[in-house]
């Protein structure tokens, strides 16, 4: 039997009234899409931002001083250490990530063509800085050495240069990335929370039982929650994208915001269904809370919004294909940064629609079955 | 009172109390005599409960003064002194009890709160349960007791410390008549043994009030009258207290009130027109039989009543009739059609009003009516008109734009009826529609029912636990423990038992049915604790380990009884650790790239080969032109595009400077940085290789080398780096969440009252509650370490003792954060949000898991520096990867050691010892 769309609409409007009169929830929505987006966008540093480095200069030659002088903010925060033992303690306590040791007689050996080595110690537990930072540091050292040697000997510069250009985000400003990913994470978190909480609230107030005694079907009840809560999140996300991300953080959005909204709507279809499902799975708020963390953390960490998907193990990548956020993140990145159109993101949209339908059907089945016991 | 007024146990002077706009008490001045039993009478919502909670010290005084037991209840010092002499039993069946704890455990808990030794507790519990008949049920969870037994247990818990003032707030509401009369016998026998004890009782049952020494009639926050029952009856010239109460009401309230007259139901004409028929309806929940073979037939237009105590199966039967619950056995018919949950058409003929006033509190009166009219398919053209008509008929027109929560109970219940009637159903199913409504409003409500039944021929199926309401029905069924004891007209039932009234008849039926309830009281040893011992001298503001520990025991028991919660936390954290340990990987590889080679020489191809040979890059089909580059980068297919200009090989050979273009996808900056690092590295290698091939001495690339040593994690593997970083995050979120809900749950369920009215202090309450969660979190920590070592093969290189010590302090912080969040939130949802926002975001983003705290900017950097997770992260990494011990990590212990007491102190300060 097809649902009565008029009922779906009316029940949805009722949900919106409910949210309007719930200041805590409203505050949360506003907070997440303004303050939270702003802080996560601005707090995340450039990959090499103030990377703490200690330099032990045992040579004290013009060349070594030149090298030490080449590490400066914002990429590096330099500490001059005096002893080798000092750097061990500093690395141990996490005071710095890098420690560069220039051995005695370094300049002399360079000029004598003995190819001496500087030692770069890296705290490999801080993986993100360790990787990119060691490459940078190496280049800085070698660059300084080469320039020094070139001047001393009058040799020509490198015959082949590498011209690196970052496309879509030329300065590799991480706040561009952070802001949009924060919106995406909040969309997921809020949509699950709002629908789940709406259902649990209705159960607590005994109005579910009342609804069921009326000529409305579970499909209508569920659809009404999906559309109303989805709409709230969608509107908030769009406003945040336009005013916070574009207006306040000045991120240049390449692609069509409308397309992004469309993809977000597809994502919401799936996540709101998840919210309903989780609310039917749990008997109390504490249980819902535990389940929420259990579901949200992997969705956030493994969807490709925190670290690149390619570097995850294949089985994790495969599992995460079933998560709507994975496709949402991929599509959002393509649309917002690379200006991709429907021609590029239709596979993700198809995935989202499919996942959403499966989740919805599954949740609806469970909802219809358990709704009687909720009353 | 009279001239020879006895000493007062409590005195109120011009006490006024507001709840967000509504006035609960309006300049009440009252003196409650000592050594007597005083009753507060009046319907719900007139301020009885507020008054009692003020006297008990559970609620903070707003205006006026309240004295109890010879001191000012506004004074903290006095409250601490006397709280051990006051016992307060709040409204609601077993409201201050813990449903998952057994009878004995509940009693032990209260005994501990009052500082009794184990032997003392055992003695008191033995004596109390023997005299109340609860002794055989010591091991039964409080949640599974019948209503009457719950109230007896509540009474035992209240009496365990020999109070001088016993405050009972509607102790018998919702209890069957037999249990009710037993309850009052019990109270009488207690007073016999402790004549000095003063008792203050609130009740909505006027018939009960007859037993009390003195009465205080209240309405709308004011006193109507005080005096003995006889005095009140004489003053109003009424026969019973209910009539007396109505007579005492101010004239404008009485207006339009008249004795209810019910015209007789017309005899069935010919073929019986049956509205509802049930045959052997049975409902089982697991082993528990809620409804046991119930059968009845209800004629069209009849008012049929279901009478019984809470939990006897009334609501369940109604739910089966509406199709809300599928019956386990038996069948039912509405208007000759079998009840079928999928049958939408029948639902349109039924109006259902459930026990919990099922109104949408977020919608106004008019919006509620309109929404229901539309949902029931009233034609759109008629909706507005119908809503208006209903509002007018039920006297709600003036209130169309009000929100239901702001309305008095009587009006809300009228609105519920209007909502249930808006589609003009043929059958009304009303589940305890009048509980807590004042007698006048109740009579108004009944007038409406009578009109519906007699004029419109609507069949009404109503449940109630008020005897006088049951007497108004055409026929009633007495229900007990899922079974119908008898079905007949009220008069016939009374007559059959030769009883004085319906209540006596019901009791007789209950006794017959073997509902001895519990052992009648008074036959055994006197209730309460034998030798009246002097109260221990009040010990003020001293942290009592015993009291704190009683909360610890209670909390642990509850955790053990709800294993789902703890299991979810433990299993959940392990699962997440597994997923994140494997999933989060900084080691970026398998990057896709393609080459746009305009040169097509062996040199240019060699350059590309240099890249595709590395484990970091995967080559894709070559690019055709710039447009192809653009398209494939846009789609996200390529992370890197290389453009080698034409004449590359030639220019290199001639020593001209050439530039190779490398386009990196900057959409994800961290990945782009890594890519650019790799490409630069490759480029350098390539240059060096070229130089070597051409035999040019190490002029360019060989001037010096950089020897990079990746410390602590020489293989630069992800797992050893991530595992120590994931542990602090998980160890923050789960314990904080569990602890947060533990306090706010008590607020929602009402048992927080025990904090308000017993000697337990705020710090004892919080520490006591925190301890089990700290233990659980430590267990969680050990499990995660075990998993790291065994499953992930990430060894603990440093001092385990240091790690363990850090973890202990850290989980104290984490659970403290949860407690802090729950001190200022009121609902579980709000606590959930606050904890979520307060743990997940800072722990994941600002604690140095991905970016070191020293590299953060702005507010994030500040949060990162003070947040406990950052410091514990240093400890886990230090011990796990860097083989450090306590001496090396001392600097990270300090912030944790400072944060833990600070967080707890903040929680203690924010927690309230009284309700506001």
Helicity range of the residues of chain B?
Answer: 40-55%
In total, the number of domains of chain A comes to 2
Q: Termini distance of chain A?
A: 23 Å
Most extensive protein-chain contact, per-chain counts: A-B, 143 and 154 residues
Number of helices of chain B: 32
Radius of gyration of chain B over all CA atoms, rounded:
37 Å
Strand tally of chain B: 25
Q: Return the structural class of chain A.
A: alpha/beta
Instruction: Count the beta strands of chain A.
Output: 5
**Beta-strand level of the residues of chain B, as a percent range?**
15-25%
Oligomeric state of shown chains: heterodimer
Strand arrangement within the widest β-sheet of chain A reads 2-1-3-4
Helix content of chain A: 55-70%
For the record, the CATH architecture of the largest domain in chain B stands as 3-Layer(aba) Sandwich
Task: Describe the protein in words.
The complex is a heterodimer of chains A (375) and B (916). In chain A, strand 1 (51-57), helix 3 (62-69) and strand 2 (76-81) form a beta-alpha-beta unit. Chain A is of the alpha/beta class and 375 residues long. In chain A, helix 2 packs antiparallel against helix 7 (174-204) and helix 7 packs parallel to helix 10 (257-281). Chain A has 2 domains: 5-44 and 173-374, no CATH class; 51-153, 3-Layer(aba) Sandwich (abc type-2 transporter like fold). Chain A has 14 helices and 5 strands. Chain A is elongated. Chain A has a 4-stranded mixed sheet with strand order 2-1-3-4, with helices on both faces. Chain B is an alpha/beta fold and 916 residues long. Chain B folds into 4 domains: 8-254, P-loop containing nucleotide triphosphate hydrolases (Rossmann fold, 3-Layer(aba) Sandwich), CATH 3.40.50; 274-512, 3-Layer(aba) Sandwich (Rossmann fold), CATH 3.40.50.300; 545-580 and 716-910, no CATH class; 591-693, abc type-2 transporter like domain (abc type-2 transporter like fold, 3-Layer(aba) Sandwich). Helix content of chain B is 47%, strand content 17%. Chain B is built from 32 helices and 25 strands. A 6-stranded mixed sheet of chain B has the order 6-7-8-3-9-10, sandwiched between helices. A 6-stranded mixed sheet of chain B has the order 16-17-18-13-19-20, sandwiched between helices. In chain B, helix 4 packs antiparallel against helix 5 and helix 28 runs antiparallel to helix 29. The longest helix of chain B is centred in the C-terminal third of the chain and has 32 residues, at 718-749. The two termini of chain B are 31 Å apart. Mean pLDDT of chain B is 83; it is low at 1-5, 517-535 and 697-701. At the A-B interface, helix 1, helix 2, helix 4, strand 4 and helix 6 of A face helix 11, helix 12, helix 20, strand 24 and helix 24 of B. Strand 5 (160-167) of chain A pairs parallel with strand 24 (658-665) of chain B.
């Amino acid at each position: 039997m097809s649902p009565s769309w008029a009922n779906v609409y009316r029940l949805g409007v009722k949900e919106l009234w409910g949210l309007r009169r719930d200041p805590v929830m409203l505050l949360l929505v506003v907070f997440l899409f303004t303050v939270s987006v702003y802080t996560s966008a601005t707090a995340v540093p450039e990959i090499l931002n103030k990377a703490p480095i200690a330099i032990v200069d045992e040579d004290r030659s013009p060349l070594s001083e030149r090298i030490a002088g080449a590490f400066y903010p914002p990429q590096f925060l330099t500490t001059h250490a005096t002893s080798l033992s000092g750097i061990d303690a500093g690395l141990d306590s996490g005071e710095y990530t890098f420690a560069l040791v220039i051995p005695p007689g370094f300049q002399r050996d360079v000029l004598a063509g003995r190819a001496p080595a500087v030692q770069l110690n890296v705290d490999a537990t801080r993986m993100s800085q360790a990787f990119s930072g060691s490459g940078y540091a190496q280049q800085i050292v070698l660059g300084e050495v080469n320039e020094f040697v070139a001047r001393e000997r009058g040799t020509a510069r490198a015959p082949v240069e590498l011209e690196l250009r970052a496309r879509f985000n030329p300065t590799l400003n991480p706040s561009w990335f952070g802001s949009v990913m924060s919106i995406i994470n909040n969309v997921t978190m809020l949509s699950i929370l709002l629908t789940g909480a709406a259902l649990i609230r209705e159960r607590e107030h005994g109005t579910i039982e009342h609804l069921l005694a009326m000529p409305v079907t579970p499909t209508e009840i569920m659809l009404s929650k999906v559309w109303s809560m989805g709409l709230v999140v969608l509107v908030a996300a769009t406003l945040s994208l336009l005013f916070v991300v574009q207006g306040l953080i000045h991120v240049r959005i390449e692609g069509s915001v409308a397309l992004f909204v469309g993809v977000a709507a597809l994502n919401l279809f799936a996540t709101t269904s998840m919210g309903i499902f989780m609310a039917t799975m749990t008997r109390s708020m504490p249980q819902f809370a535990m389940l929420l963390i259990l579901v949200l953390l992997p969705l956030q960490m493994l969807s490709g919004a925190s670290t690149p998907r390619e570097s995850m193990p294949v089985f994790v990548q495969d599992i995460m294909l079933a998560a709507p956020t994975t496709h949402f993140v991929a599509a959002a990145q393509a649309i917002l940064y690379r200006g991709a159109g429907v021609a590029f993101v239709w596979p993700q949209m198809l995935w989202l629609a499919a996942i959403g339908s499966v989740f919805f059907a599954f949740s609806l089945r469970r909802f219809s079955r358990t709704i009687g016991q909720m009353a | 009172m009279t001239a020879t007024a006895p000493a007062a146990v409590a005195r109120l002077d011009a006490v006024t109390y507001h709840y967000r706009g509504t006035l609960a008490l309006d300049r009440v001045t009252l003196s409650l005599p000592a050594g007597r039993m005083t009753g507060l009478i009046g319907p719900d919502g007139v301020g009885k409960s507020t008054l009692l909670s003020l006297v008990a010290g559970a609620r903070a005084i707003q205006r006026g003064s309240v004295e109890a037991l010879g001191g000012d209840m506004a004074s903290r010092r006095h409250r601490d002194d006397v709280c051990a002499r006051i016992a307060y039993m709040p409204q609601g069946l077993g409201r201050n009890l813990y449903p998952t704890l057994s009878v004995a455990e509940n009693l032990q808990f209260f005994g501990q709160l009052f500082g009794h030794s184990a032997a003392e507790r055992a003695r008191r519990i033995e004596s109390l349960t023997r005299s109340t008949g609860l002794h055989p049920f010591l091991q039964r969870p409080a949640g599974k007791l019948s209503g009457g037994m719950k109230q007896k247990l509540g009474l035992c818990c209240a009496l365990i410390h020999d109070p001088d003032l016993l405050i009972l707030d509607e102790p018998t509401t919702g209890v069957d008549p037999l249990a009710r009369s037993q309850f009052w016998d019990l109270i009488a026998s207690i007073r016999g043994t402790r004549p000095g004890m003063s008792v203050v009782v609130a009740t909505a049952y006027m018939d009960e009030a007859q037993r009390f020494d003195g009465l205080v009639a209240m309405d709308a926050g004011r006193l109507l009258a005080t005096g003995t029952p006889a005095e009140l009856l004489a003053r109003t010239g009424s026969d019973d207290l209910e009539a007396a109460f109505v007579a005492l009401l101010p004239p404008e309230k009485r207006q339009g009130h008249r004795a209810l007259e019910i015209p007789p139901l017309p005899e069935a004409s010919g073929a019986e027109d049956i509205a509802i028929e049930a045959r052997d309806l049975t409902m089982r929940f697991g082993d528990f039989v809620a409804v046991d073979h119930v059968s009845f037939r209800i004629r069209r237009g009849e008012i049929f009543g279901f009478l019984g105590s809470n939990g006897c199966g009334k609501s369940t039967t109604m739910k089966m009739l509406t199709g809300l619950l599928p019956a386990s056995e038996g069948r039912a018919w509405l208007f000759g059609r079998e009840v079928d949950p999928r049958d939408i058409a029948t639902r349109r003929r039924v109006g259902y009003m459930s026990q919990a006033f099922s109104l949408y509190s977020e919608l106004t009166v008019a919006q509620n009516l309109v929404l229901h009219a539309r949902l029931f398919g009233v034609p759109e053209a008629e909706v507005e008109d119908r809503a208006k008509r209903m509002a007018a008929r039920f006297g709600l027109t003036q209130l169309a734009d009000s929100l239901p929560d702001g309305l008095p109970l009587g009006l809300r219940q009228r609105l519920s009826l209007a909502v249930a009637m808006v589609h003009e159903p043929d059958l009304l199913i009303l589940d305890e529609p009048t509980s807590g409504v004042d007698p006048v409003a109740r009579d108004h409500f009944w007038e409406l029912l009578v009109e519906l039944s007699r004029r419109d021929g609507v069949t009404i199926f109503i449940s109630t636990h008020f005897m006088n309401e049951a007497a108004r029905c055409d026929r009633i069924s007495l229900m007990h423990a899922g079974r119908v004891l008898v079905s007949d007209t009220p008069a016939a039932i009374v007559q059959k038992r030769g009883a004085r009234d319906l209540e006596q008849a019901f009791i007789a039926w209950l006794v017959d049915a073997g509902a001895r309830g519990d052992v009648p009281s008074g036959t055994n040893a006197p209730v309460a604790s034998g030798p009246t011992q002097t109260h221990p001298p009040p010990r003020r503001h001293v942290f009592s380990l015993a009291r704190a520990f009683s909360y610890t025991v209670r909390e642990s028991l509850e955790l053990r009884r709800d294993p789902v919660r703890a299991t979810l936390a433990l299993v959940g954290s392990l699962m997440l650790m597994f997923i994140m340990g494997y999933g989060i990987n900084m080691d970026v590889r398998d990057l896709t790239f393609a080459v746009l080679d305009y040169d097509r020489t062996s040199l240019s191809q060699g350059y590309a080969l240099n890249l595709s040979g590395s484990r970091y890059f995967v080559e894709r089909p070559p690019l055709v032109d710039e447009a192809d580059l653009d398209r494939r980068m846009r789609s996200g297919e390529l992370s890197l595009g290389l453009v080698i200009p034409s004449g590359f090989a030639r220019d290199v050979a001639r020593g001209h400077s050439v530039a190779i273009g490398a386009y990196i996808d900057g959409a994800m900056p961290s990945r782009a940085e890594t890519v650019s690092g790799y490409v630069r590295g490759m480029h350098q290698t390539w240059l060096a290789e070229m130089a070597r091939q051409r035999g040019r001495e190490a002029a360019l690339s060989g001037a010096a080398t950089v020897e990079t040593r990746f410390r602590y994690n020489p293989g630069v593997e992800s797992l050893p780096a991530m595992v120590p970083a994931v542990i602090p995050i998980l160890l923050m979120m789960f314990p904080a969440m569990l602890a947060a809900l533990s306090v706010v749950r008590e607020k929602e369920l009402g048992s927080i009252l025990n904090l308000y009215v017993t000697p337990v202090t705020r710090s004892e309450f919080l520490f006591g509650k925190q301890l089990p969660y700290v233990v659980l979190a430590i267990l969680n920590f050990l499990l995660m370490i075990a998993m790291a070592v065994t499953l992930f093969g990430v060894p603990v290189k440093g001092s385990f003792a240091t790690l363990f010590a850090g973890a202990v302090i850290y989980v104290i912080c984490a659970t403290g954060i949860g407690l802090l969040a729950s001190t200022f939130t009121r609902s579980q949802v709000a606590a959930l949000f606050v904890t979520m926002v307060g743990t997940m975001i800072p722990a994941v983003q600002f604690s140095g898991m991905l970016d070191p705290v020293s590299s953060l900017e702005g507010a994030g950097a500040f949060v990162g520096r003070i947040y406990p997770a950052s410091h514990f992260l240093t400890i886990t990494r230090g011990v796990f990867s860097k083989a450090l011990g306590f001496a090396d990590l001392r600097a990270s212990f300090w912030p944790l050691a400072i944060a833990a007491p600070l967080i707890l102190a903040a929680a203690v300060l924010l927690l309230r010892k009284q309700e506001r």
